[in-house]
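Workshop exercise sheet. Pairs work together: one partner reads the sequence aloud, the other fills in the structure field after running the prediction. Swap roles for the next sheet.
Pair: D.N. / O.F.
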Amino acid sequence: MSIAEITWRAREQALRRAWATRQVRPDQLAGLPPLTAVRPAAERRFTSPLPADTSSLVPDEARAAILAVADRLLKGEWEVLGTIRTDLERPDWFYDPVTGRRSLPDAYAFSLNQRDESAVGNIKQVWEVSRLQHLTLLAVAWYLTGTDAYAERVAEQLTSWWRENPFLSGVNWTSGIELGVRLINFAWIRRLLDSWPPVADLFERNELALRQIRWHQEYLAAFESKGSSANNHVIAEAAGQLAASCAFPWFPESGRWRDDSLALLERELDRNTFPSGVNRELASDYHGFVAELGYFAAIEALAARTPVSAQTWRQLCAMTDCMAALVDERVRPPRQGDSDEGRVVLLDAPGHNRWPALLSLGGTLFGRLGWWPALLPDAASALVSSLLGERQAVAGRPPRRPDRFTDAGITIFRTDAADSPELYCRLDGGPHGFLSIAAHAHADALSAEVRYGGVDILADPGTYCYHGEPEWRKYFQSTIGHNTLEIDGQWQSVRGGSFLWLRHARGRESAVADDGTVATWTAEHDGYARLRPPAVHCRSVRVDRALRSVEITDAIKSGHHDVRLAFHLGPDVQAELDGSVASLRWLADSGQQTARLTLPGELRWTLHRAETDPILGWYSSGLGHRVPSWTLVGMGRQTGGNRLITLLTFAADEDLLSRDMGDKAVSLSESNAAAADGAPGSQAEAG
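Structure field:
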């Protein structure tokens, strides 16, 4: 950390200690004097409801899905980060069902360590429910049907949360990102319930609601993420403050809060985004989360007639076009870096993949381009379109789908949309992550992610957990946990904690070419320059669209080193290993699919699945989820300059695979054998 950041953190800690006197415990609420720092009741009106008849624009399929989920919510049923909850008729806002622990509701927020599972349980489980997004979905259900049971449940649980979580009491006040997301949901709940007769008694004429909206904004105005923490957290803080000050301009400070948060959002959105539009955290899930935060903050500002700048609209549009370019044929994003399935507002039934909904929303804001993927209409787009009025015109958008984001080190090779199933290959040749701590990065430099028809073949295993299971957290962050090369048993980047990296491997793309049939990519990283002797991992990838093959060549510059080369298969793929050839099979919509993975003969190959000592052979589709999957690991000792060549070939059936690719596989085997015979020290050794 810089001297300036250390100074700021010291001041913040002093302020946190001083604010202990401002804590309001649940049993103190009744004794609080009347709130005076608020505009008179006659001036407290909600001025940006949805236009009349907007509900008729919601597609029938989206409406049915929303009501099905809302009806389950009325019974208390809800999935939270892989855990099925059945207790949400009357939520315990401090209870974690994963560990069974309950944090202290009246503890001073800043005295709690939210990463201490023994004190607070799995904090993500607790925080996720307290984002109150399930109440926004219930408010949508009321808006679509007028059924009072939905609105009454919203009012009951909002009141419960407000009463049980007064200012600075409990773990739900320990992170600004949670307050920011909550404020945006407060605004949308109020908007959706605008025609419900008791809504003003729930919000404008409710002193408890006024206190909570004010408390949230006071907190965000005082505690801003800065320095090495100024990643998606500061975006959420600024977005929430901007949304609330626009939707609820009922306080003497509202104008200042609006102006300050707007300036903060625009500045930090720019700092957090590459010129190409890719989020600098290089964690795909957070790209979508930050874009969604920007969308809803900008929508709220526009509704309040204090719009964000044209540059910020351009930036949000660039982020949106990036998302459209990065997805595969199933509209699935890359699986780079951390993922916690973070979402901002639920206006549709939830799904594990948020990107179709985000692209639909982005298309509403900016318009779809011709090369974008096809998207189904949804409720969010209908509601936002009605509120927005007209799309934002942004010039200079890409006329064709980009496949390279040079500043982010992301390259994607794929077959044409008409040539189904799609062969999709994402390559990582860029920075490790954002800011000095790179909180949501993984040790995945030069990793490759390959899909066929939207099915993970060479898969990024994902994230699985953030807190509470440290060995699992380490595995999913590790170098051996990705499709890349580990040298001398070391990670490429040096880890200092679950969200802290002490040294970053820096990737660099050196050559990229694509003639439409064959695409090639070459890159290297410096993460192993610290070894003795130093090493540089170099990787080249060749994608042959006509032959439907992916060839990966790995080499090390300098010295003799023990290596492990890992290839992780998706959970749908079955594998059989015969020496250095793996036969792959999976079931797709079109029937049985096959592929052959011809591995470097210089290494000794083993197949792993669902192992726990050490952890190996797992895939996580989202936070809290993990399933067994096959992992291939090759071990040996390599001399600098020697090449390890891997060939992945696809075909509709085994006979076709053998006929079309046999000659190339034989040629590759001979090439590997020749390299092994002609280079001393390159024979496989256990290591």
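Discussion prompt: Confidence is low (pLDDT under 50) at residues 659-667, 669-687. What would you look at next?
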